[in-house]
Amino acid sequence: MRVVLLGTGGYHPSEERHTACIMLPEAGLVLDAGTGAFRIPQHLATRELDVFLSHAHLDHVVGLTYLLAPLALKQLDAVRVHATDVVLKALREHLFSAPLFPVMPAFDLRPLTGSSVELAGLRVRWQVLAGHPGSSMAYRIESTAGPAKSLAYVTDTVADGTYREFVRDADVLIHECYFPDALEEWAVKTGHSTTSKVLELARAANVGRLVLVHVDPRSSGPDPLGLAGVQQVFTRVEVARDGLEIDF
């Protein structure tokens, strides 16, 4: 699987990172649609997209509006948006309300039912996360054809271990880490994760590689999450930047 990280920051875009958007081009699969979604057209490898949303906060959904152009220009034939009923209702009533965005794109809005869905050669599973206002959804993508590979995506939650089994043994875990350890109090207040706790979870779940995203946009520099002081907890870790590509 090839994964392209189009947006790796949280809350609002910065000079270094746009907000949440992860794409598997050859599968036509997108996880969240923050401001990084403006980059989707340059990575298209299919005529259809399946977009899975973690929750309805603007930094994860505003980029859906950017897909109007590739649909209108016939770069895409179809876009299916998968999310909970609550999230889909929020999109219809708020993001695509006429005063805010007068042209509703021709999306196929699909509520999540059951615990998984089969796509071409892939199985997408989900699990509800706690701790963040309004809750969020974690996703796990597993290959069903060829070598067994798995990718887990966890964003906007506290790294409390309640989903450890859901991400266990994933080849790659893409996990939010908004704050360094020194800002633990703010993490608790806002329902986000801190560096050491995410690394401890990755170690306990025996994941192959940890990629940290949803970084506080106020932070910058080579080590915005204080990895240097805690990397011994889990060494196969990196802080993502927009444009990072992962092949596994």
Please render the helix and strand layout as text.
Layout lengths: L1 E6 L13 E4 L4 E3 L16 E5 L5 H4 L6 H5 L5 E6 L1 H11 L11 E5 L4 E4 L2 E8 L6 E8 L6 E5 L9 H4 L4 E5 L7 H7 L4 H11 L3 E5 L23 E3 L5 E3 L1
Parallel strand pairs: 3-4, 4-5, 5-6, 10-11, 11-12, 12-13
Antiparallel strand pairs: 1-2, 1-14, 2-3, 7-8, 8-9, 9-10
Mind summarizing the main beta sheet? 7 strands, mixed
How are helices and strands ordered from N to C?
Answer: EEEEHHEHEEEEEHEHHEEE
Please, how many domains?
Answer: 1
Strands across the major sheet, in which order?
Answer: 6-5-4-3-2-1-14
The CATH architecture comes to: 4-Layer Sandwich
Helix/strand structural class:
alpha/beta
Q: How is the CATH topology named?
A: Metallo-beta-lactamase, Chain A
Instruction: Give the end-to-end Cα distance, rounded to a whole number of Å.
Output: 6 Å
Shape: globular
Radius of gyration: 17 Å
Kindly state the percentage of residues in helix.
Answer: 10-25%
> CATH homologous superfamily, by name?
Ribonuclease Z/Hydroxyacylglutathione hydrolase-like
How many helices? The count is 6
Assembly state (oligomeric): single chain
Number of strands: 14
Can you give the mean pLDDT?
Answer: 96
Keywords: Hydrolase
Pfam families: Lactamase_B_2 (PF12706)
Organism: Caulifigura coniformis
EC number: 3.1.-.-
